[in-house]
Amino acid sequence: MGRPGACxxxxxxxxxxxxxxxxxxCGQVDDRGRHAVHSGDRKGAGSDIQxxxxxxxxxxxxxxxxVRQDDVAEVPEQPPSRAGRTQRPAGRGDMEVGRERRKxxxxxxxxxxxxxxxxxxxxASAAVCQxxxxxxxxxxxxxxxxxxxxxxxxxxxxxxxxxxxxxLATDIFIPDxxxxxxxxxxxxxxxxxxxxxxxxxxxxxxxxxLQNQRGRYGSEGAGTFNPLDALNEVDDGYDCIEWIAKQPxxxxxxxxxxxxxxxxxxxxxxxxxxxxxxxxxxxxxGDNLYLYWMFSNGARRQFYSWxxxxxxxxxxxxxxxxxxxxxxxxxxxxxxxxxxxxxxYRDNAGWFDLFSEAALDHFxxxxxxxxxxxxxxxxxxxxxxGLKFPSAQYPYDAVKGVPSVKEILTxxxxxxxxxxxxxxxxxxxxxxxxxxxxxxxxxWPVPSTAVSYYLARDxxxxxxxxxxxxASLTFLYDPKxxxxxxxxxxxIGEKSGPHDQRQLKDRTDILRFATEPLAEPVxxxxxxxxxxxxxxxxxxxxxxxxxxxxxxxxxxAVFRESAGLARYWNGLDKPAKLEAGKxxxxxxxxxxxALVFNKxxxxxxxxxxxxxxxxxxxxxxxxxxxxxxxxxxxxxTVHMSEAYPSRLILPVVPKESYITQK
Length: 662
Description:
- By secondary structure, the chain is of the alpha+beta class.
- Among the domains are: 251 residues, Rossmann fold (3-Layer(aba) Sandwich), CATH 3.40.50; 209 residues, Galactose-binding domain-like (Jelly Rolls), CATH 2.60.120.260.
- It is built from ten helices and 23 strands.
- A ten-stranded mixed β-sheet has the order 1-2-4-3-5-6-9-10-11-12. Strands 13, 14, 15, 17, 20, 22 and 23 form a seven-stranded antiparallel β-sheet that branches. Strands 16-21-18-19 form a four-stranded antiparallel β-sheet, with no helix packed on it.
- Strand 9, helix 9 and strand 10 form a beta-alpha-beta unit.
């Protein structure tokens, strides 16, 4: 077991972990330092245009400075900018329709490219006004923050040293008075001038510390951030927290805050075991970039592009993107750290959020300490599209024992049990249906029974295992005509959610399975798995799966979607080519949900080999290819015989757990 603050087990406390060594330990580069990520040399659209850090660093005389809030003139707050990515269309039709759609796709790609370039330029312009050397622009950012803080707050700027000598741009806002105070800390890859971290402290007088991660907005260390799992944030978090704890204005309690990308540093700091980290308060985020942001069962997710914002090399080509990552080593590391973590952990998540599984995994690891509180709602990364679920009575009585942020920072809270509050979704069109209510648990996963629904060649899904000696269904997967993503949890905003899949009903590259109308409700809570027995005439391909709630009126609501590369049939650490005619077993992790399929509904499962842009289009090659011209059509088969019983595995919970409590 490594000492607190060491990124990986057995790393000495003061060892300088140079970036290639970190990547090698995590299985992301080979012994000669070559990255195991297959990507192009060009920097993709959406990457921030970064100035050289050396041109941003302030002279030593500027490292300590003060500005009082009393001297601040009113500066109008600028609305945040947004840029959305246009969904790429797809569908079957005659050649003329295909040509028209390809033209439309090209136009939309061009528009998307220019939008992303404009966004990058705006971010780049912000990045050059992040230190005192940048004069009036920097002063304006400081003033905006001071306007949100109590009168008399004074400001200091430092370049905070990390263990490897890298210095991080840090702004410190100290209340008027004698102190010392607790500290509200934001460490972020985005612009650090965000006063919401102080607001999140629920009125507790505190020092506000705003810091940018290495290589960002005036911080040194460009190129040393680990873009594949962010584990360097464990060490940097430790060094920052303990530097703060030594300052005369700190009372020894440091609270970290952050939603989404702001939350990467706080959640990684959980595993640092920094002695003075008291609270991590986050929202819709995840710590490990590989597991929760960028890959699903080895398949590249749409949010892989986010590494471009962190200085990683991002490109649409070559494909497929292949990353070797030691998942078992990571889980061993965090499980060991979680056993010693005494931090109060707070998180809000949504069933359709990009990173929903992270909050549940963190709760499962930290719940035994009795200091965790997680809420999961019927929401996404913003407002969802598709069906809208009824509002429900929040279980305030069940969370009375959960200490507030104020109690954590100003006293010695005596929380005895961790609390998970989650919304059990139900029939969104029937407010009286079972489900559509909040549930409470002190553990995750909750007690459930793994129930198998077996696929049959006639499209049925049943509890009876197949008895046929030879049964299968085959479809052609053309990567030049991929299935468009429709709902789920791949996007920010309304593109995610329980969208109706009937828009895809005419596609012949989707296998559809469904139960008979249910005679009684079936409630599930926990992780969903799909076990497929597959074969292909391609050396590698991808399989996608969707869990569907089919309403009596025909609405096909998607609740979970996942994908996986066939090459990982023997495990993520043992990729291998497929042999034509040979059958392979794939077990796909579809993450978790909580849902009651109502009486009269049908449980559905859709299987295909593409979902774009949620997942990278697979070219049906084993080695990465550089263009569409090298793609090929694959003949993919799903087997459902006695020897190869493909199935959907659902975590079924007792009916009395959700019917009698409503």
